[in-house]
Design a protein that fits this description.
Layout lengths: L11 H13 L1 H12 L2 E6 L2 E6 L2 H10 L8 H10 L8 H11 L5 H25 L8 H17 L2 H5 L1 H19 L9
Antiparallel strand pairs: 1-2
Length: 193
C-alpha cells in the first residue's frame, strides 16, 4: 500500500529557512506559508515531515473528524508528566472521555460570559499598567498576556484564591510554558515520518 502524497510546501532545501521563520514569528510564518501553499503545508527536515495546519476546516478535520488518524507529537510524551493524562495529552478513549466532560463548557451559550471574563481580566491588567507603568519602562508582553489568561481561567472556575497567590507560581508557569514552546519548535522533538 503506497503512502498518500504529501501536502505542498517548501523544498527540502528551503525548509530550514521556513523553520527559522516559524521560530522567530510562528503566526506570521504560518500565514505566509498559507498564502503560498494553502492551509495544509508540509515541511521536510532531517528526514521527517512536519505538517502545518491552518484554517477552521483543516483544524476541524485533524482535531475532530479523524483525530485518531493523527497521533500526537513526541512533545506530548515529554510534557505528560507535568500536565497529567487529560484532554491535551491523551488520545483514544481517554481523550474522548475527557472531551465529552469539557464539551458543554464550550457551548455557544457560554461564549458571552467567557468574553466578559476575558474583557474584565484585560481591563484590570490595563488599569494596573496605567497605575504602575513608568514612562520609558518596558514590559514583557508575553508574561502579561499569560497573566491575563491565568486571571481569566481563575475567574471562570471561581478560584480567585489562585490569583492572590499568582506571584509565587506565575514565574515558574511562565518558564515552563516558554520551555514547552521552545521544545515544540525543535524538529528533533517533533514526531514525523
Amino acid at each position: 500500500m503506497s503512502k498518500p502524497p504529501l501536502p505542498p510546501g517548501p523544498s527540502i532545501f528551503t525548509s530550514l529557512i521556513w523553520l527559522g521563520r516559524i521560530k522567530r514569528n510562528a503566526l506570521g510564518a504560518v500565514d505566509r506559508m498559507a498564502q503560498e501553499w494553502g492551509d495544509v503545508v508540509s515541511i521536510r527536515v532531517f528526514g521527517k515531515v512536519i505538517v502545518v495546519v491552518r484554517g477552521a476546516e483543516a483544524a476541524h478535520h485533524v482535531l475532530l473528524a479523524v483525530q485518531d488518524d493523527y497521533p500526537k507529537s513526541k512533545l506530548i510524551d515529554i510534557v505528560r508528566p507535568a500536565l497529567g493524562e487529560g484532554l491535551v495529552t491523551s488520545s483514544g478513549e481517554t481523550w474522548r472521555r475527557s472531551r465529552r466532560i469539557v464539551q458543554p463548557l464550550f457551548a455557544k451559550r457560554y461564549l458571552k460570559e467567557y468574553a466578559d471574563l476575558m474583557a474584565s481580566a484585560a481591563g484590570d491588567a490595563l488599569d494596573g499598567w496605567n497605575r504602575n507603568w513608568r514612562n520609558g519602562e518596558t514590559i514583557d508582553l508575553s508574561v502579561e498576556i499569560q497573566h491575563i489568561g491565568l486571571d481569566t481561567i481563575t475567574r471562570a472556575i471561581g478560584a480567585d484564591v489562585l490569583m492572590s497567590e499568582a506571584d509565587s507560581y506565575e514565574p515558574a508557569l511562565a518558564g515552563a510554558l516558554h520551555e514547552i514552546g521552545e521544545m515544540s519548535r525543535n524538529p528533533a522533538v517533533q514526531g514525523g515520518q
